[in-house]
Design brief:
The protein is α+β, with helices and mostly antiparallel strands and 402 residues long. It is 41% helix and 23% strand. The longest helix is centred in the middle third of the chain and has 80 residues, at 224-303.
């Protein structure tokens, strides 16, 4: 996975401060009859602000007008809780009663450089801190995305840009709260300067809370939850890469199977085509032979005195001829070889009988040169008739069966 730092945009929590925001000379506060303190003051601004990293290096973050003055960002400041110093956690409905010392009003405005709010301090310790000057600075607690894009703005170089600024609370603080550039910001609204890391009691504690992350050959410090979110994103990306690789492998295996199946089908198709081509070449001769054989079979059946119907199969014709010549023949259960042998015998016997009859008929016919009287012709006809009648009751000769 590509882990370039420049491609990351991480959501972070920020604490921006405005030193001496409640200034009795330029922004006099008012005290109500109940003892509450009401004031209007700037809480943040646009610009490039510098921060010292835990390793001592400097980082410059740009707060653009379109981000600082965005309608969604300004709206998120309205009616937010006012706290005395920054709490160790975000202000929520569960802890607001304990942490809140007042609130921000709904009239959040801006000029071309600053953002202004009205606020009310309602608890005595907060009112006292403002009046005695121990907590006149304002610090915004908010979330934002960090875009790692460098450049130059209004002649000032920057290393990254804050995006989607959303506020959680505003705190009364004595000095800007120190912290690492990745998680906590202390922006000076008047003259941007590096906060003095030695003046606040939480400096060491903040550094101790940071973990290290190794990116592109370098070590960086970040809040544990930031590193955990980053590692989770890396693990998810790695998991997606593995799933993608598995999908590629499965797709290749499936493609190989389909290719092999296609080759098999093509081979079978070619074989079938070759057989069809061969059959097409042989078909005219086979048809001609089949017609010739059928005509020959019908001729043999006719010679045996069998009437052939058009729907009779060859085997049925042969059996009819056998039964005609050998009336007592039993053909049930006989195989094809037996039928063929009996059929050949029947055809031969039928042909022999035909020849004998032809010779006899020829002998009975008087010679053309021999003139018979009418009486002789009548006597010869009667003789032939009686001979046919005498043999009509007899069966076919059995001693001549094959």
């Amino acid at each position: 996975m590509n882990k370039k730092k420049d491609s990351m945009q991480v959501s972070q929590s920020r604490l921006d401060w405005y030193q001496d925001a409640i200034n009795y000379e330029t922004n006099p506060a008012e005290k109500t009859a109940e003892g509450f303190l009401i004031a209007r003051a700037p809480v943040t601004s646009i610009g490039v602000f510098s921060y010292r990293n835990p390793d001592g290096s400097e980082r410059r973050e740009l707060r653009l007008p379109e981000e600082v003055f965005a309608e969604e960002s300004l709206a998120s400041l309205k009616m937010k809780p006012l706290t005395l110093l920054h709490p160790d956690e975000k202000v929520t409905p569960e802890n607001v009663g304990e942490l809140s010392v007042g609130s921000v009003g709904s009239d959040v405005t801006s000029d071309s450089y600053r953002v202004y709010v009205s606020l009310t301090a309602t608890k005595k310790d907060a009112v006292d801190a403002v009046e005695n000057g121990s907590a006149r600075s304002l610090s915004c607690g908010y979330d934002c995305d960090i875009e790692w894009t460098s450049g130059t703005w209004m002649g000032m170089k920057y290393d990254c840009i804050q995006r989607k600024i959303r506020y959680n609370h505003v705190a009364l603080v004595p000095v800007p709260r120190a912290g690492d550039g990745n998680a906590i910001r202390m922006d000076s609204a008047g003259t941007p300067t590096l906060p003095d890391m030695n003046k606040h009691e939480n400096n060491t504690n903040q550094e101790d809370k940071m973990d290290k992350i190794h990116l592109d050959g370098a070590d960086y410090q970040a809040e544990p939850q930031v590193i955990a979110a980053y590692n989770k994103a890396v693990d998810r990306a790695d998991g997606l890469e593995k799933e993608l690789e598995k999908a590629r492998t499965d797709a290749k295996e499936q493609l190989d199977k389909l290719t092999a199946a296609k080759s098999t089908v093509e081979a079978e198709r070619d074989s079938i085509k070759e057989r069809l081509d061969a059959m097409e070449k042989e078909m005219p001769g086979k048809i001609e032979k089949a017609i010739k054989d059928r005509l020959e079979l019908v001729g043999k059946a006719a010679a045996a005195g069998v009437e052939v119907k058009t729907d009779m199969a060859d085997a049925d014709i042969k059996k009819a001829v056998i039964s005609k010549v050998f009336p007592s023949a039993n053909l049930d259960g006989k195989d094809e070889a037996y039928i063929e042998a009996r059929f050949d015998c029947a055809c031969e016997l039928s042909a022999t009988k035909g020849d004998e009859k032809s010779r006899k008929d020829a002998a009975d016919i008087p010679s053309a040169n021999h003139e018979l009287s009418a009486q002789d012709q009548l006597d010869a006809a009667k003789k032939r008739y009686n001979e046919r009648m005498d043999g009509a009751w007899k069966d076919e000769p059995k001693n001549k069966e094959a």
